[in-house]
Please model this.
Amino acid sequence: AYCSIAAVPFRPNSRHSLSTIFVALLLLSGDVEANPGPQLPTSNSITFASFNVRSAVNKAALIHDIIKDNSIDLLALQETWMQSDAPPAIKQDIAPPGFVVEHVPRPCVAGGPSRGGGLAVVHRDTCRVRPINLNCQPTSFELQSLIVSVSPPVLLLNVYQSHFPAQSVFFDEL
Model:
């Protein structure tokens, strides 16, 4: 079997279609980019909210909706009711896609409540947040301390004071 290919040189079409001219003019105008990418925020602002959730595990969908509907960047939660030994999948379930959870379980205090409590901060994964140790162990309230890396950095204190013990102790420790 023998194959032959005709040697015909390539000659571009001398007629230009209207769409080719339109695209060329559009690109020459300078206002069009092939892929401009996502818009970056022009400010260093963060939308912050706080919510006493009273069991975050049972309200993951609600937390997702609150964050989305209000364009929240950082949400502080009180009374998450998550135990320290809860699997990471349970803790991370309260964060919608693109968000991360920083969780602090309720500390065990002699004579104090054994269930409930717990604090969490749900934040965008693009927002740099890191826990910070303030070297204090309050007994009358729960405390979560974080540094939010904006300019200037912000110290975020997520505080929850249950009905135990009396408020006078709370104000002394605060």
In short: The CA atoms of residues 100 and 123 lie 5 Å apart. The longest strand covers residues 142-148. The mean pLDDT is 81.
